[in-house]
Amino acid sequence: MNKKVYKNCILLLSASLLVFLSCDKRSEEERWMAEIRYFIMTQTDDFKHYKAIDFEKIDVDFLMAKGDIQKSLTVLQDTTRIKLGFYSRIENASDQLITELSGKVNGLTVDEVDEFQFQNARLNKALADHFDELPKAILSANQKQEIALTELNTSLSAYGLSIYNINLTDGENVFYYHRFQIKNQSYEGIFELNKKTLEVSSFKEI
C-alpha cells in the first residue's frame, strides 16, 4: 500500500468517526438520563448497583400536578379576584392592569407567578393610594396572598426553583426529578443540567 492510499484511508476513517460521533440518535430525554446516570455512578464510585426507578422532566405540567402548588395558586387567584372587584370600581382604574390580572385570575400557572407578583404590586399600590384605610376584605386578601406566596416558594424550593425565578422553557438549564436505588437503598433528587454542555451542574437530594 503506497503512502497516498494509506493517507486516504486514514482520512476516510477519521471522517467516518466524526460522522458517527455527531449523529447521536438518542432522544433528548435519553441523553439527559445518560448524563444523570454517569454523574451518580461517578459520585458514588459504584458502576454496578445503580437502578433507575423514576425519571421526570420538571416542567410546568410536572409542577401543576402537585397538590400543594395548585392550592397556593388557587388562593392567589381567589384573592386577586376580590381585590380586582374593588379596583375595577375606581374611576381612573387602568384597563390594561385589569385585563392582565383578569387573565391570571382565570388561569394562573406556576411559570407566571414572577410576572403576577409585579402586576399584583401595581394593584396593591393603586388600592393603597385610593383608600384612606384599606377595607378589611383587601387586608385579608393581602395577608392570604403573602402566606400563599411563602408556601409556594417553599414548595418550589424542593425542585431548585423559587417564585422569583421560574424559567422552565428558554433558560440555560433544564431540571429533572429522578428516583433511583444504590444497593437497594432508595434516593430522590433534583438534577440541574446545562443545555449546551449536557453536564450536571447541580444536584439536590430530597
Helices and strands in order:
Blueprint: H1 3-22, H2 28-44, E1 50-57, H3 60-64, H4 67-87, H5 95-105, H6 113-130, H7 136-157, E2 173-182, E3 185-194, E4 200-205
Antiparallel strand pairs: 1-2, 2-3, 3-4
Helix pairs in contact: 4-5, 4-6, 4-7, 5-6
Search tags:
alpha+beta; Nuclear Transport Factor 2, Chain: A; four-stranded antiparallel sheet; 7 helices; 4 strands; 55% helix; elongated
- The mean pLDDT is 85
Number of helices: 7
Number of domains: 2
User: Pairing-aware structural class of the strands and helices?
Assistant: alpha+beta
Low-confidence stretches: 5-24
Structure explained in plain terms:
- This protein has 206 residues and is α+β, with helices and mostly antiparallel strands.
- It folds into two domains: 73 residues, Roll (Nuclear Transport Factor 2, Chain: A); 91 residues, no CATH class.
- 55% of the residues lie in helices and 17% in strands.
- The protein has a four-stranded antiparallel β-sheet.
- A hairpin with a 2-residue loop joins β2 and β3.
Short description:
The chain has helices spanning 3-22, 28-44, 60-64, 67-87, 95-105, 113-130, 136-157; strands at residues 50-57, 173-182, 185-194, 200-205. With 206 residues, the protein is α+β, with helices and mostly antiparallel strands. Helix 4 (67-87) packs antiparallel against helix 5 (95-105) and helix 4 runs parallel beside helix 6.
